[in-house]
């Protein structure tokens, strides 16, 4: 069993620490708030000789991910981090990394997108990239950000998967707040993540290969996209396997969805990221008053755990989805659309309400969560569900 | 690695190398691109001084040379870009419309 140290640290420091322990061969990064301290801490590790990583300082995120794509095709274990506009600026390369099946691991400090300019937490940046073909893991706490980073390496590099993976943590709330967390010893992490043995490396001169070929003009582009779908479907099993192994090793749970009170919940909130904590806090208080509340935290958004979520919500009388990003003009936010789709195949018809909350770091007060549970209880006892989505706490 | 792509048009999604990788070196010679051509180079052997500029410049390595002498073009790969005609210092190469009878053009 690993030796674990308990520390009081920020999420970003822990992500940098996890990255150091995974010993990437290469990192190309560009600083952006609130991701900066991840790459800053990592640069210190490089400068102090604590990790032997080729650290490439680039002039933009577009170049950062381009350099990562090149290094990964060359056979390197590659990691980086970004946020918000930086992630948006990587847009092209996100798809390229996934299409080329390169197991790059990136941390994203979830932050709002302009305009208006805002540096605080929401999930607009990452939800914009949800169809890029990356595996997306979300952290509620600094601890989960650390754990997800280690697991992401194993999942991405698994021979049945070979897809890039992103480990997302809420900007400032999780990246910058000091949190209590456990860190494993280096040897245990090294043993857990293992060596990356690339196949089809550009640097294998005895077996030369070409990366980035053309598949248009009636070529097999369509077939390649299908093979990408097959890979991310295979990732479901791998994520569970790696999660179980990591849970045994660390003593901390991991599920693609994690439930609180779901054994007997009548009303439930589905949520991603740090607000899961606020939701559980309120759910616990209401439980003490006899309200059968539950909270489902979605920890893996791609591949989306439809079956697991439906199984967990089965029998609940009303569901609220908390979305920290918009999908303007859609029926609700991204998590709402996935959740309602997951519930469609159930025989019972569960009313689902979408609450958009916390955009641009807008405060998430406990009374907001209470209001959501009150709405749900009303719906469960026969009141009509609000028509359309609700902007929780917006004037 | 030798890679047999004869039945590539029948391959299923899981039969292609991962991520559109080409796991074999130099196999572009198996991919016939001559059909892209709308004009073909015609070389006048009388004017040609065998300077080999066309051979150096051809982006598709489609100028055939033996014993340091140009003797033909590889029309499986010549895309008709006209670089050879453009760099020829003795105007020995002319681009002629594809499908044209060469003797007519040379009259």
CATH class category of the largest domain in chain A: Alpha Beta
Please indicate the percent range of residues of chain A in DSSP E strands (runs of 2 or more). 15-25%
Number of strands of chain A: 15
Count the helices of chain A. How many?
13
Distance between the termini of chain A: 52 Å
Largest sheet of chain B: 2 strands, antiparallel
CATH-defined fold name of the domain at 37-101 in chain B = Alpha-Beta Plaits
Poorly predicted spans of chain A? none
The structural domain count of chain A equals: 2
How many helical elements of chain B?
Answer: 3
Largest interface: A-B, 21 and 16 residues
- Total number of β-strand segments of chain B? 4
Q: Could you say what the CATH architecture of the domain at 37-101 in chain B is?
A: 2-Layer Sandwich
Ranges of chain B where pLDDT stays below 50 over 5 or more residues in a row are none
Portion of residues within helices of chain B: 10-25%
Rg over C-alpha atoms of chain A, rounded to the nearest angstrom: 21 Å
Structure commentary:
- The complex is a heterodimer of chains A (395) and B (107).
- Chain A is of the alpha/beta class.
- Chain A has two domains: 4-250, Thiamin diphosphate (ThDP)-binding fold, Pyr/PP domains (Rossmann fold), CATH 3.40.50.970; 257-391, Rossmann fold (3-Layer(aba) Sandwich), CATH 3.40.50.
- Chain A has 13 helices and 15 strands.
- Chain A has helices at residues 11-22, 36-47, 61-73, 84-89, 91-99, 124-128, 142-157, 186-193, 221-250, 275-288, 306-313, 334-343, 366-380; strands at residues 4-10, 26-29, 54-57, 79-82, 105-110, 135-138, 165-170, 178-184, 257-260, 267-271, 293-298, 300-302, 318-323, 352-356, 390-391.
- In chain A, the strands form four sheets. A six-stranded mixed sheet of chain A has the order 9-11-10-13-14-15, sandwiched between helices. Chain A has a five-stranded mixed sheet with strand order 4-5-7-6-12, sandwiched between helices. Chain A has a two-stranded antiparallel sheet with strand order 1-8.
- In chain A, strand 6 (135-138), helix 7 and strand 7 (165-170) form a beta-alpha-beta unit.
- In chain A, helix 1 (11-22) packs across helix 2, helix 3 packs parallel to helix 5 (91-99) and helix 11 crosses helix 12 (334-343).
- The longest helix of chain A is centred in the middle third of the chain and has 30 residues, at 221-250.
- The termini of chain A are far apart.
- The relative contact order of chain A is 0.12.
- Chain B is of the alpha+beta class.
- Chain B is 13% helix and 18% strand.
- Chain B is built from three helices and four strands, in the order E-H-E-E-H-E-H.
- Chain B has helices spanning 53-57, 83-87, 102-105, and strands at 39-43, 63-66, 69-73, 93-97.
- Chain B has a two-stranded antiparallel ribbon. A two-stranded antiparallel ribbon of chain B has the order 2-3.
- Chain B is elongated and about 55 Å long.
- The interface between A and B is medium-sized, with 21 and 16 residues.
């Amino acid at each position: 069993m690993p030796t674990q140290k308990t520390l009081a640290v920020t999420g970003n420091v822990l992500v940098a620490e996890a990255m150091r322990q995974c010993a990437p061969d290469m990192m190309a990064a560009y600083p952006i708030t609130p991701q900066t301290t991840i790459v800053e801490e990592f640069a210190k590790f490089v400068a102090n000789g604590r990790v032997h990583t080729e650290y490439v300082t680039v002039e933009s995120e577009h170049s950062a991910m381009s350099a990562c794509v090149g290094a990964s095709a060359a056979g390197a274990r590659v990691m980086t981090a970004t946020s918000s506009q930086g992630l948006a600026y990587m847009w092209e390369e996100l798809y390229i990394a996934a299409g080329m099946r390169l197991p790059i691991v990136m941390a994203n400090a979830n932050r709002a997108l302009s305009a208006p300019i805002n540096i605080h937490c929401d999930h607009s940046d990452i939800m914009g990239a949800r169809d890029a073909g990356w595996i997306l893991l979300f952290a509620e706490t600094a601890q989960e950000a650390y754990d997800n980073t280690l697991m992401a390496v194993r999942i991405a590099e698994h021979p049945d998967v070979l897809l890039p993976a992103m480990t997302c943590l809420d900007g400032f709330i999780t990246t910058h707040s000091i949190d209590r967390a456990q860190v494993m010893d280096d040897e245990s992490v090294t043993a857990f993540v293992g060596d990356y043995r690339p196949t089809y490396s550009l640097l294998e001169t005895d077996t030369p290969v070409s990366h980035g070929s053309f598949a248009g003009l009636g070529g097999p582009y369509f077939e390649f996209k299908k093979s990408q779908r097959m890979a991310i479907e295979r990732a479901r099993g791998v994520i569970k396997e790696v999660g179980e192994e990591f849970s045994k090793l660390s003593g901390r749970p991991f599920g693609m969805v994690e439930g609180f009170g779901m054994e007997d919940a009548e009303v439930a909130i589905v949520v991603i990221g740090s607000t899961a904590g606020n939701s559980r806090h309120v759910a616990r208080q209401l439980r003490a008053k006899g309200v059968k509340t539950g909270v489902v935290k979605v920890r893996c958004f791609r591949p989306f755990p439809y079956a697991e979520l439906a199984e967990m919500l089965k029998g609940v009388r009303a569901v609220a989805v908390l979305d920290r990003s918009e999908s303007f003009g859609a029926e609700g936010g991204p998590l709402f659309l996935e959740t309602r789709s997951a519930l469609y195949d159930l025989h019972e018809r569960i009313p689902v309400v979408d609450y958009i909350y916390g955009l641009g770091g807008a405060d998430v007060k406990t009374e907001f969560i209470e209001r959501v549970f009150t709405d749900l209880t009303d719906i469960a006892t026969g009141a009509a569900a609000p028509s359309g989505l609700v902007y929780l706490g917006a004037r | 690695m030798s890679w047999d792509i004869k039945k590539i048009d029948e391959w299923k999604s899981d039969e292609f190398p991962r991520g559109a990788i080409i796991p074999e070196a130099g196999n572009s010679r198996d991919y016939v691109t001559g059909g892209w051509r709308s004009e073909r180079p015609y070389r006048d052997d009388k004017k040609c001084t065998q300077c080999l500029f066309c051979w150096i410049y051809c982006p598709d390595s489609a100028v055939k040379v033996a014993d340091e002498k140009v003797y033909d073009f590889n029309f499986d790969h010549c895309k008709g870009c006209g670089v050879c005609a453009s760099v020829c210092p003795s105007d020995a190469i002319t681009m002629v419309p594809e499908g044209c009878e060469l003797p007519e053009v040379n009259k």
